[in-house]
Amino acid sequence: MTRAHQFLIPALLAGDARPEDVAPAVATELLEVLGPLVGRLAARAAGGEIRRATGPEPDGDRLVTPREAANRLGLTLDWVYRHCDRIGGRRLSRRTMRFPESALVRYMAGKRA
Questions:
Q1: In this structure, are strands 90-91 and 97-100 parallel, antiparallel, or unpaired?
Q2: Does the N terminus or the C terminus of the chain have fewer Cβ atoms within 10 A?
Q3: Residue 5 · residue 29 · CB < 8 Å
């Protein structure tokens, strides 16, 4: 994010700038930077504990993204999203989903049995 963008965020929050006046490319850059923060704030507002999405779980189990899960399982990303409960996926916020590595291992073991 450029230094100019750092000044745009406070201006948007204060109402000194309007989202409608932001160029689409700039809006995309801001969403890329702010998206993860918004998800974590939403989880906190809902009373949830905030953890880094790809960090280890308390029991040492690493969380992976849906894309990583799809690659490891050899399935499509769409299939992983549709069957997240079956695989052991966890919703961290409305827009954030992660899969514990151990859940992927259990799913694969069940498929081989």
A1: antiparallel
A2: C
A3: yes
